[in-house]
Amino acid sequence: MYALRDHTAAGVEDELSNPFRTLRLLDPEPPAGGATDRSHGVAVRRAAGRRCPDVVQAYASLDFAARTAGPAPGSISLARLASDPLGPGRLLLTGNEDLRRAVHRVAGRHAELAVVQSGDGQETLAYSRGPVLLAEEILATAYPALQPEAGRAWGKVASPSRP
């Protein structure tokens, strides 16, 4: 399912059925038995997250914060973001230092986001607005096609008018 297939047969369905290959998180290994062997092994790219855009890492961090710490403004430790089994560091295959640099760069461009030191000396990602809305805004600022329609507030879905 995740092995590299013939490029002539690749299509949208193939890309959707192989998300780890599409995201370049897995590399195909050459067949052990030569060209006639149709079996394929795969190798996990441990540092694949280094190519992940900063805004995507910040979005994933704020999404994780919203799911674990709640929807209100607050903070979450960078160590937890990097090491939690369901955190963005583990899921995006991003190392602690790479995730730290990415959120620092994004926080430098967004006033509602900051990386601060907690009382015990650990770095935390602090957000002064709800993490879901802030995450959407950060992503939409980087990718203008995602910006909401005029007159629509961040995070609110417009409901169709009913006759």
Descriptive report:
The protein is of the alpha+beta class. It folds into two domains: 7-45, no CATH class; 50-144, Arc Repressor Mutant, subunit A. 37% of the residues lie in helices and 13% in strands. The protein contains seven helices and five strands; from the N terminus they run ααββαβαααββα. It has helices spanning 12-17, 19-22, 54-69, 78-83, 88-91, 96-107, 131-142; strands at residues 26-29, 41-44, 74-77, 113-117, 123-127. The strands form two sheets. It has a three-stranded antiparallel β-sheet with strand order 3-5-4. Strands 1-2 form a two-stranded antiparallel ribbon. A hairpin with a 5-residue loop joins β4 (113-117) and β5. α3 runs antiparallel to α7 (131-142). The model is unreliable at 155-163 (pLDDT under 50). Residues 21-41 are annotated as: Disordered. InterPro entries: DUF4007. This is DUF4007 family protein. Residues 1-143 form the DUF4007 domain.
In short:
37% of the residues lie in helices and 13% in strands.
